[in-house]
Amino acid sequence: MSRSRLRQLIDEGRVTRGGEKIGDPNHRVKPGERYEIYVPQAAPASPRGQDIPLTVVYEDADLIVIDKPAGLVVHPAAGNPDGTLVNALIAHCGDSLAGVGGERRPGIVHRLDKDTSGLLIAAKNERAMRSLGKQFHNHTIERAYHAVVWGSPRLGEGLIETQIGRNPFDRKRMGVMRAGGKEAVTRYRVLERFGERPLASLIECRLETGRTHQIRVHLTHLGHPLIGDPSYGRARQAPRAKTPEEEAAYKTVMEFPRQALHAWLLGFQHPSLHKTLRFQSEWPADLAGLIGALRTLKKP
After folding, report:
1. pTM given for the model
2. Which candidate, 110, 201, 209, 241, has a CA 20 to 30 Å from the CA of 140?
3. 43: left (phi over 0), alpha (psi -120 to 50) or beta
4. Do residues 175 and 165 touch, judged by C-beta distance below 8 A?
5. Is 271 within 8 Å of 128 (Cβ atoms)?
6. 14-72, pLDDT tens digit by residue?
7. What is the C-alpha to C-alpha distance for residues 210 and 48, in angstroms, rounded to an integer?
8. Interatomic CA distance for residues 294 and 146, integer angstroms
9. Residue 286 a catalytic site member
């Protein structure tokens, strides 16, 4: 159990010594004493379960890996009280959820933005939550994303290291900070370049840290924001089309409705099996269509 969960049980009077309740989490134990901890059944989750279709990549008693579609919010919040991935997982997993933090709900170890598609893992019990959380904290989780950006970095690959924090002028956005913020590290590699100048590129990004909007902020900082990203960077104007094929491709690019970002690779150490699991996700139809359209353009 986590320290916070044990503190919660002590505060609820569920830890006793010789039948006497221990009310102080800082109580010092002595050799030879016997303590009893009563762990109640996990309470029903406060978010209600909802029958929302899920693409399950892997599932067992400890965890579940989902291929999240773009448009699905991960966790209930003020603007999205239901209809989220958490609501869907509560309904899908049912009694297989042993509970996290005393509540029968999935443990969300990491998140994807609403309009980012791809692989996401959730824990079903405290042990899995603790193990996966430690792996994320130690940066041993393997995560790779495919991103389609405006233009192309001059170098074919590189490392972006900055401090990322909340934008002081727009609290919904993050930004690179000169002082303060948290360390953020992203490795990138150009996979393909499309069109004249070039117009756009397909890039693989690997996260060494997991800050909010990290890839979106870092690629904008690099001067190559994601195609379709409404919050970061400024959309570039496509050049004048010379052929009907170019016109169709430019139209697809300019009208792409979300940030072109997909979590295609996820690898981690299983909490119970003690072996590495690794999963890959195919591009969703909209991203595959965008890349297909860009591939019709003249190579740079």
Report:
1. 0.81
2. 201
3. beta
4. yes
5. yes
6. 899 988 888 888 888 999 999 999 887 665 556 788 999 999 999 999 999 999 999 99
7. 28
8. 15
9. no
Which residues, 6+ apart, have CB-to-CB distance to 46 below 8 Å?
103, 105
Which residue in the list 24, 51, 82, 113 is annotated as catalytic? 113
Q: Are 66 and 122 in contact (CB under 8 A)?
A: yes
Residue with tokens 């609290």: 171
**Given the DSSP bridges, would you call strands 142-150 and 200-207 parallel, antiparallel or unpaired?**
antiparallel
Q: What angle do CA 258, 73, 126 make, to 5 degrees?
A: 140
pLDDT for the residue numbered 180: 84
Phi-psi region for residue 78, left (φ > 0), alpha (ψ -120 to 50) or beta?
Answer: alpha
Query: Which domains are assigned to the chain?
Result: 4-37 (no CATH), 44-138 (3.30.2350.10), 139-300 (3.30.2350.10)
Q: Which residues contact 192 (CB under 8 A, 6 or more apart)?
A: 201, 202, 291, 295
The token pair at 226 is 């994601």
Question: What would the DSSP string read from start to end of 127-193?
Answer: HHHHHHHHHHHTT-SEEEEEEEEES--SSSEEEEEEEEEE-TT-TT-EEEESSSSEEEEEEEEEEEE
What three-state secondary structure class fits 292?
helix
Could you give phi then psi for residue 241, rounded to 5 degrees? Answer: -70, 140
d(CA 252, CA 241): 13
Residue 249, classified by CB atoms within 10 Å of its CB into exposed (0-12), middle (13-18) or buried (19+), is: buried
DSSP 94: G
- Radius of gyration for the alpha carbons in the chain, expressed in angstroms and rounded: 23
